[in-house]
């Protein structure tokens, strides 16, 4: 076979392709465990940051020791000990027919169509007393599904932290949901009013500090009313009767966390 024959060129190209695909596949398989570990660490970092517990000088795993993971059955509002929180992935469970609940359109304030029957929750306790409970929340913005966490204090109503770890809203507009100053205005706000209704919401414009509702309200993001509305809607869903409300009510009446 001459050096430049068509057959030799094709054979060489074919062999190069085979070798490269074997290398890429081997790398993908070999690095899978590492990727999962990195994803888990990233999730833990997000939880710590949103709960305002993150210290960049201490390893994430070490800091996460003060957080206890648990799984909750949203319909009963009770902890479910048959599901291992370390292995549970609520985003994956929301896509599996055996573990998801379809949300009827009239109740689907978050625009998510379906959710997992169970949700992962994170408890921060000190000397046996609950300091914070951190709950995953997500829902549609203008362009994307926004994934985040809300952290509540021991009254299960006062916000101690809030933020998103994944979304595709426009930088400078809806993307301002990551703005530090805006996020800093959330702690201290109250989710529920005296009747137990979810009142926490992002308003259009700025909050009137004289208004009796100001304890439930957060400034709107200018030029991003649609994303702001998405934030209010997802909070209304997840903190309402079809989300965590039965669970938070149980905890309140039990006088704290006793899984
Ligand atoms: C390219 C482009 C990207 C936009 N991205 C967002 C967005 O991420 N979130 C949002 O609420 N509005 C976004 N808007 C603006 C909305 O279309 C709408 O005008 C805005 O939400 C209204 O908010 P305002 O009442 O505060 O002006 C975008 C507009 C354009 C042209």
Short summary of the structure?
By secondary structure, the protein is of the alpha+beta class. The chain has helices at 6-50, 60-63, 90-93, 180-184, 225-238, 245-254; strands at 67-73, 78-79, 100-102, 114-116, 118-126, 129-140, 145-152, 159-166, 201-202, 217-218. The model has no long low-confidence stretch (mean pLDDT 93).
Q: What bound compounds does this protein have?
A: flavin mononucleotide
Computed structural class: alpha+beta
Poorly predicted regions are: none
Shape: globular
Count up the helices.
6
| N- and C-termini, Cα separation | 75 Å
Report on this structure.
- This protein is an alpha+beta fold and about 260 residues long.
- The chain has one domain (about 65-255).
- Helices cover about 30% and strands about 20% of the residues.
- It is built from six helices and ten strands.
- The strands form three sheets. It has a six-stranded antiparallel beta sheet with strand order 2-1-5-6-7-8. Strands 3-4 form a two-stranded antiparallel ribbon.
- A hairpin with a 6-residue loop joins strand 7 (about 145-150) and strand 8 (about 160-165).
- The longest helix has about 45 residues, at about 5-50.
- It starts with 5 loop residues before the first helix and ends in a 5-residue tail after the last helix.
- The mean pLDDT is about 95.
- It binds flavin mononucleotide.
- Flavin mononucleotide binds near residues 173 and 174.
List descriptors:
259 residues, alpha+beta, 6 helices, 32% helix
Indicate the topology.
Elements: H1 6-50, H2 60-63, E1 67-73, E2 78-79, H3 90-93, E3 100-102, E4 114-116, E5 118-126, E6 129-140, E7 145-152, E8 159-166, H4 180-184, E9 201-202, E10 217-218, H5 225-238, H6 245-254
Parallel strand pairs: 9-10
Antiparallel strand pairs: 1-2, 1-5, 3-4, 5-6, 6-7, 7-8
The structure holds flavin mononucleotide.
Residues 142-143, 169-170, 173-174, 222-227 line the site of flavin mononucleotide (FMN).
